[in-house]
Design goal:
The complex is a heterodimer of chains A (268) and B (265). By secondary structure, chain A is an all-alpha fold. Chain A is built from eleven helices and no strands. Chain A has two domains: 1-33; 43-264, MetI-like (MetI-like fold, Orthogonal Bundle). In chain B, helix 6 (196-202) crosses helix 7. Chain B folds into two domains: 4-77 and 155-259, Rossmann fold; 86-153, no CATH class. Chain B is built from seven helices and ten strands. Chain B has 265 residues and is of the alpha/beta class. Chain B is globular and about 55 Å long. Classes of the chains: A mainly alpha (268), B alpha/beta (265). At the A-B interface, helix 7, helix 8 and helix 11 of A face strand 6 and helix 2 of B. The complex binds adenosine-5'-triphosphate and magnesium ion.
């Protein structure tokens, strides 16, 4: 019984990925696409293995460099995402709490938000030069908005009843924000953080294509220039997996922080 | 113990064109250490009066005082049990109860713990201390809301239809529970309700309000003996008081549903 359930669950999860891998492999085998342009999954796996370990030399000049690039990208994502979280929650809270602050900053933010983040890239390279900084800047800026918008929305939605209850129980000033408003706004804030993390992964690759000489985005564009589609694909797979893993991690933390909210919405 | 007074209070909602006069020339005194219940037709201004004492709102004119001092803002000296409870859903039962204790200046951890345990025991929720409010029954939530407020040992206790959402059986149990809590440690209390039995059973004084704009129409002294048990609800005196209250409330309820009555443009 349990074994069968587990097998069914596995099939449920694995069916689509396996189908995609098969199609990918067959497309080359049947000559639908040129192998030189689209190496098969086994080839990509071999390249990825060599990229990571440097064991076989399969990926040539890139052999064993994955760790370095991966660390560079992850560090940038973490830096940008952290800055975006701190600023987004702080500014979002201020906007949510005060109409005065909202009127003062909202028009500016709305205009900024409507400029595609990638449009900031050339300027930030001019400003910071080819280095970590334009990448982190871009990630922080792009990841700022989802957290900020969701936080201000969540803070505005906090029922006055909770604030009243808090004040009645002797809480005032800044503690009202930390003990009532932010906890109550948590569901919306987590939604913002999740979107921000997704944006951060997009932007780290985009910025590494041009603004820095390391990271998975740089590896990708470099492999393009040296015509190594297998390295490009290995790189894309890595980016996809990393984004997926970081999202799962965030969801796990969120599930712990919001255990009460699940009860509210489903159980209660 | 604290005496609460509202004198010549006027409370208006909205502005100019669509202003609603909730209270006008409203006088109410809650003598120190007595339990007052407040009855009146829907929309007559009961919650408005309670909010003024709690310090959530301010009157357009008149004074609201506790022991002669004007009420400026909400504070832990006036505990409020809300109609919708407003328990903090992100905190567990014991954290909800200890919430106000942590705001106090002397927040020694073991003292907070001891006080929380005492309250959990008093409201019979020791076994549910690590649950979230969403995991409790309606009656249990009520008890958490009461314990959260009692934690601060407020001299004034304000309750706005706290048992309104409960089924009849649980409701009677909660009434007995509240009476025994209060009799053990009497404090100045105001309790809003639409339930006549409840209003008589709990009260030292029972106030009936007029239709909006609300004023106190009449105050009955409930001279039933204490300590009270549910059995008192079958006594002749209880019925007498309840019937008197029923007549008063009905008069005002009729007035309040007649179009244009009680409204001042
Ligand atoms: N925030 C508000 N804004 C506008 N009008 C309000 C507000 N609060 C109360 N009122 C109005 O003031 C009047 C008195 O309201 P209040 O809530 O005090 O009545 P109540 O006696 O508590 O009624 P109920 O028994 O239905 O709870 C009502 O006509 C109501 O519509
Ligand atoms: Mg009311």
């Amino acid at each position: 019984m349990v074994g069968r359930d587990r097998a069914r669950l596995f099939a449920n999860y694995a069916a689509l990925p396996i189908a995609i891998l098969l199609l990918w492999q067959l497309a080359g085998d049947l000559g639908l696409v040129k192998r030189a342009l689209l190496p098969g999954p086994l080839q990509v796996l071999a390249t990825l293995w060599d990229l990571a370990t440097g064991a076989s030399g399969e990926s040539g000049r890139y052999s064993g460099t994955l760790g370095r690039h991966l660390t560079a990208s992850v560090t940038r994502v973490l830096a940008g995402f952290t800055i975006a979280t701190v600023l987004g929650v702080a500014l979002g809270t201020a906007i949510g709490l005060s109409r005065t602050v909202e009127r003062a900053v909202d028009p500016t933010l709305q205009v900024l938000r409507n400029i595609p983040i990638t449009a900031f890239l050339p300027l930030s390279i001019l400003f910071f030069g080819i280095s970590d900084q334009p990448a982190v800047f871009l990630i922080a800026l792009g990841a700022l908005f989802p957290t900020l918008v969701n936080t201000s929305f969540g803070v505005k939605e906090v029922g006055s009843r909770f604030v009243r209850a808090g004040r009645m129980l002797g809480v005032s000033g800044a503690s009202l924000v930390t003990r009532i408003i932010l906890p109550a706004a948590q569901p919306a804030i987590w939604t913002g953080l999740r979107l921000s993390l997704g944006v951060a992964w997009v932007l780290v690759v985009v910025s590494e294509l041009i603004a820095v000489k390391s990271g998975l985005g740089y590896l990708l564009i470099d492999a393009y220039q040296f015509f190594r589609p297998d390295v490009m694909l290995a790189c894309m797979v890595t980016i996809g997996l990393l984004g997926y893993l970081s999202d799962r991690l965030l969801l796990a933390v969120r599930a712990r922080a919001l255990a009460w909210n699940r009860l509210e919405t489903i159980g209660g | 113990m604290a005496e609460v007074r509202l004198d010549r209070v006027r409370k208006v909602f909205g502005s100019e064109g669509d202003a609603v006069v909730a209270l006008d020339g409203f006088d109410l005194a809650l003598p120190a250490g007595t339990f007052t219940t407040l009855l009146g037709p829907s929309g007559c201004g009961k919650t408005s009066a309670l909010d003024l004492i709690a310090g959530f709102t301010k009157p357009e004119s008149g004074t609201v005082t506790v022991d002669g001092r004007a009420v400026e803002r909400p504070g832990p000296d006036r505990g409020v049990v809300f109609q919708d409870l407003a328990l903090f859903p992100w905190l567990r039962v014991d954290e909800n109860i200890a919430f106000g204790l942590r705001a106090l200046p002397a927040k020694e951890a073991d003292k907070v713990k001891a006080r929380t345990d005492e309250l959990l025991e008093a409201v019979g929720l020791l076994l549910f201390r690590r649950r979230y409010p969403a995991e409790l029954s309606g009656g249990m939530r009520q008890r958490v809301a009461i314990a959260r407020v009692l934690a601060l040992d407020p001299p004034v206790l304000l309750m706005d239809e706290p048992f309104g959402a409960l089924d009849a059986q649980t409701r009677v149990l909660m009434q007995e529970f509240l009476v025994s809590l209060w009799e053990r440690r009497p404090r100045t209390a105001l309790f809003i309700t639409h339930d006549l039995d409840e209003a008589v059973f709990l009260a030292d004084r029972l106030c009936v309000m007029t239709a909006r704009p609300g004023r106190i129409k009449e105050t009955l002294t409930v001279d039933l003996p204490r300590p009270r048990e549910a059995s008192i609800m079958s006594s002749a005196r209880f019925h007498e008081l309840r019937d008197r209250a029923r007549v008063l409330v009905r008069e005002e309820a009729l007035r309040s549903i007649q179009p244009l009555s009680g409204t001042k443009a």
